[in-house]
Design goal:
By secondary structure, the chain is an all-alpha fold. The protein contains eight helices and no strands. It has helices spanning 3-29, 32-48, 50-55, 58-77, 98-113, 116-127, 132-139, 143-167. The N and C termini lie far apart (63 Å). The mean pLDDT is 82.
Length: 169
């Protein structure tokens, strides 16, 4: 395969995969800007390894890179001082979709509050719709770990969302 053909195949892959993997990255990081940086970094690394990745499943290869790079970033960031206080939310104008947006905001906040590993399991299992086996392969852990992390994450999300719902008048 010529270099021009490889470059064209890579460009086609990026165009087709961008939104799918940006969604995954956004849910992993909890921040759209950080997700774009993560995805761009991974796509640069993927370009260097394109011959190898293109022969396998490039989506799985990129997904694994996203998870690994996010976990590495999170481990470096973990040294920072974290606080439980959240910033005040800005008042929203009345909007017919406002309730739905508030629910999505609550879900994103609850998802961001999960430990990194649990968040990754939830994103891969329920957003990317991967099987337990594929999720385990993407995270480099056992199927049993995926099952237990998923159960714990679902329990935490349920508790957080119910608590928030009860607190809302």
């Amino acid at each position: 395969m010529s270099r021009e053909t490889e470059d064209a195949a890579y460009a086609d892959f990026v165009e087709a995969a961008w939104h799918r993997h940006l969604r995954t990255a956004t849910l992993l990081t909890g921040d759209r800007h950080r997700a774009e940086e993560l995805l761009q970094d991974c796509l640069v690394k993927l370009f260097v390894r394109w011959r190898r990745a293109a022969t396998d499943d490039p989506h799985a290869y990129l997904r694994r890179m996203l998870v690994n790079n996010h976990v590495s970033w999170w481990r470096r960031r973990r040294r920072e001082l974290l606080t439980a206080d959240l910033p005040e939310r800005a008042d929203r104008a009345v909007d017919p979709l406002g309730d739905r947006l508030d629910e999505l905001d609550e879900l994103h906040l609850a998802l961001r509050a999960l430990p990194e590993r649990q968040r990754a399991v939830v994103v891969l299992r329920h957003v990317e719709d991967l099987s337990e086996k594929a999720t385990a392969a993407a995270l480099g852990c056992s199927v049993g770990t995926v099952k237990s992390q998923n159960a714990r994450a679902m329990a935490r999300l349920r508790t957080a969302l119910l608590t928030n719902q009860e607190a809302t008048p």
